[in-house]
Amino acid sequence: MSMTSPIIETNESYLKKVEKVHKQNRIKSLLKGLLFLLPSIILFGVFVFYPLFRTIYLSFFLTDAKGATTVFVGWEHYVNMFTDPIFLKSIKNTFLFVIYTVPVTVIISLFLAVIANEKLKGIGFFRTIFSSTMGVSVAAASVFWLYLFNPTMGLLNEFLQMFELDPIGWLTDPKWALISVAVTTIWMNVGFTFLILLGGLQSIDSSLYESADIEGSSYFYKLRRITIPLLSPTLFFVITVSIINSFQTFGQIDILTQGGPANETNLIVYSIYREAFVNYQFGSASAQAVVLFIIILIMTAIQFKVGERRVHYQ
Amino acid sequence: MTLSLGKKITFYILLIISALLLAGPMLMAIVMSFMTNQDILSGSLPTALTFDNYIAAFEKFPLMKFLLNSFIVSTVIMLGQLILASLAAYAFVFMEFKGRDLLFFIFIGTMMVPFEASVIPNFHIIRDLNWIDTYPGLTVPFFATAFGTFLLRQNFKQIPKELREASLIEGIGDFKFFLTVVLPVAKSSLITLGAYGFLTSWNMYLWPLLATTNDSVRTVQIGLKQLQTQEQLNDWGMIMAGAVTVIIPTLILLFLGQKRLQKGLTEGAIK
């Protein structure tokens, strides 16, 4: 910044000028910074923050079929929701679904990551296969499993027949439908979870294993004492992401069961979709969306909180 | 760490069994897509291989159009995300201004709002903009990405600040520095984010289901759903041919970029 002036100034006015220039620079850099951020800020505003507040707002109203508010009903949607057996079932089954899918996905992916982390010939091929379901879309995965679950032609019932067991109505039997959707979901999610866990394993310092080898530690001792503790941040991340993903399940249900049988697989996002875009009850659908938002908010908050603590302890 | 022969064999057996189980549904679909319907219905092993299912899927169904739509939508979202995320990440790393940290916090906060929870007003916005059945309606809502901004910010941070100071002395402006220094240095993260953005956009389901009412811009995922529901004859060979066609582009992308994706996503996850 060259602002030498030939006039001898008093100390005070010089300071004032410096301050003014500083202020101008601050405003300039603020404007410039905002310019780089503006596209994102505008789109977040229009497609994230406004819809969020609008959803909360709508949840206190009745609406017409176009989504315009008609009558203010206060907390009525919330009160109705928590006394409505169908919604309560939807909440219960959503949590059940999370319990069915998350632990199994993480355990299978961890197992795959551990065996794919060995330095063996051709391991790259196996890594590619294990991560491949990440590239399979919900629609395609659901179509594959729709056939596998097919009551007459599906491979699963053919296997049962081979062992002379009774065929199962995988998607039509209320006892099995949620489990079948969970199996599909686990299969779909293993690819991504595996890839992240493998990355976590590879970032563990190999000298730790070497010194354990010198001490003659067994394979499972190393797994328990080195791998799992050092992998815990990654494991934690993967568990949170899986839980959030499970709460957002939609496509599988739309293709496999449409929420049936007897609302067994009517998980929360599908329930919102049906309430809003089939029944045109945007008010009560918004109230359900607020519940979903709060659940995800709590999950993410826990992730940040625990993640932060982890960093402090390092 | 060298393994004994016994251990090696154990690992290979585990690897092969796992690979077969995991790839099973996909292998089954690929085999079925080349089988005649007779073989499928009688439940026998394929007696003949044929391309008929693929020909039928493309002829009876606007599959080509759906593929093209998906390609356009995914590419546009990918480019939009790359541009917006890299601009934002640059501001967060190289520019200093009041409220920067607060803004970053707000960006990260958007990750807490699941799209599914705000889908109703989003649908109304798109409808009121007359963007139903248009490419902007399918793409623009996904341009701004907190995850992408975060990922690129991590990467931009590794560029030495001295580089920016030196360029300031030479009188190089922010935008020029961004284009000529930062973007080329961060090429590999940009590719990671691009691949990830393309992959997730290609596989999107709920939004294209809501934002399209006819075939004009309908994406291939919704096309596959239609193929499956409209096909009354239970022509599974054709349905599988459609499903396999849908996953080929993303599988190729994944096979090419698996290592990079793994590295990029893990960095985003752990750091």
What's the CATH topology label of chain B?
MetI-like fold
Decide which structural class fits the backbone of chain B.
mainly alpha
> What is the domain tally of chain B?
1
What is Rg of chain A?
28 Å
Number of helices of chain A: 12
Strand content of chain A is: under 5%
Annotated CATH architecture of chain B: Orthogonal Bundle
What is Rg of chain B? 23 Å
Highest-level CATH class of the largest domain in chain A = Mainly Alpha
Q: Low-confidence parts of chain B, pLDDT < 50 over ≥5 residues?
A: none
Q: What summary fits the major beta sheet of chain B?
A: none
Distance between the termini of chain B: 28 Å
Mean pLDDT of chain A: 88
Strand arrangement within the widest β-sheet of chain A reads 1-2
Explain the overall architecture:
The complex is a heterodimer of chains A (314) and B (271). With 314 residues, chain A is mainly α. Chain A has two domains: 11-72; 85-313, MetI-like (MetI-like fold), CATH 1.10.3720.10. Chain A is 72% helix and 2% strand. Chain A is flat and about 100 Å long. With 271 residues, chain B is mainly alpha-helical. Chain B has a single domain (51-270), classed as MetI-like fold (Orthogonal Bundle). Chain B has 14 helices and no strands. Chain B has helices at 5-33, 37-42, 52-60, 63-94, 100-109, 119-128, 135-139, 146-156, 161-169, 174-185, 187-202, 206-211, 220-230, 236-270. The model of chain B has no long low-confidence stretch (mean pLDDT 89). The interface between A and B is large, with 97 and 91 residues.
Summarize the structure.
Chain A has 314 residues and is an all-alpha fold. Chain A has 12 helices and 2 strands, in the order αββααααααααααα.
